[in-house]
Queue: 3 jobs
Job 1
Amino acid sequence: MRFLFSVIANGTENDDPSVMVDIDAFNQKLIDGGHRIIAFGIAGPSSAITIDNRGDAPIIVDAPFVETTDFQSGIWIIEATDTEQARELAIEASACCRRKVEVRPLLG
């Protein structure tokens, strides 16, 4: 089963260099265990552009589609045997990146 781990930030995090060391170690654990499909950070909402081209002309807004204090700051897409294994890996992910992690199964 494949799962999306969304890393949730709120912009108040004060990361010291140990955060990236811990994330790198977790990424290596995922790779070694055959779990990691892809992982990356995402720029903050101030860089978002929302495009709606469902009408006669595109509407382009230099802002996120939802204004909120929490935002997605990174993702992992992982392979796990089941939801319980994904949950256990997400607990480790949250600890290493020092942020909330939302877990969702991928469909298809």
Job 2
Amino acid sequence: MTYVIFSGGELDFAPSLPEEKFVICCDGGIRHADTLGIIPDLLIGDFDSASAQILEKYKDVRTITFPVEKDFTDTESALEFCLKEKASEILIFAATGNRFDHTFCNAVLLAKAEFAGVPAFLINAYNCVTAVSGRREFHKKENYFLSVIPLQESVIVSTTGLYYNLNREKLNMLSSRGISNVFIANTASVTVFGGIALVFLSKD
């Protein structure tokens, strides 16, 4: 089943969600489900940013509460829950915003799902980010670029269906070489050998 996470950041569009889904709201992320008219299946977090009024509205929803002083974010705890529940796919929304440290960390956390064999995607109005270790296909989206950024010192990458294709070439974490590639086919592939990288579908 697809697990959907609403984090506490900005939700800058109304996402299209699968009919069969399990919805988790992280703390203040409950406001996004409320706005979209979605009843969550689980509330999770320390609840230092959700209003008392909205918590009262959803008081009958299953809730997992953590202390404010903890060593992990609410989004990470939600991701861990999804992995323990054997999710087939994880979609994360409202995990970006003004706090770049949170945005960056949420993107890096995608690697945790990839290592567990579960495709996970961080999505906003302009970007869809996922972690890849192995081979993954991506469908062309109009006006979107594809970028590959290693999550370690260097990785070996092959691509197909892109203007600048790679054939078992090294991408370095301290280089911008993998940024802003262009689709030349309806489907592109990215293969990461012996490592892991973030793949971004982004538009201006």
Job 3
Amino acid sequence: MEELIARITQKTGLEASVAKKAIGLILAYLQKEGPANEVNQLLAALPGAEEAIAQAGSGGGGGIMGMMGSLGGGVMALGTQLMGAGVSMGQMQPLGRELFAYGREKAGEDVMGPIVGAIPGLSQFV
């Protein structure tokens, strides 16, 4: 996880703590919205992923965000959560691209492709 955080801070300019929270939020979103088998393979390939998800979730996250997700707000709701964590609009795409590139390196395209394909709107951020 430290390697991924370092790559994201370098590409986005985010503080390490913000990058880790953002990673946790994105992985939690993938866990909720993506194909379970592939997401589980991704999480298994990323040491520290479960901890990042747990830490990101400790700040709440239900309420309106959960409602937006269930109403199809999906990626938009994730963007709102990321902004709340301190990620600017301009940092979201580099953050997503770096996270998914790292995922492809660690878990492979056969895992990442179905995840991106299963979540509407996600491809514009990766």
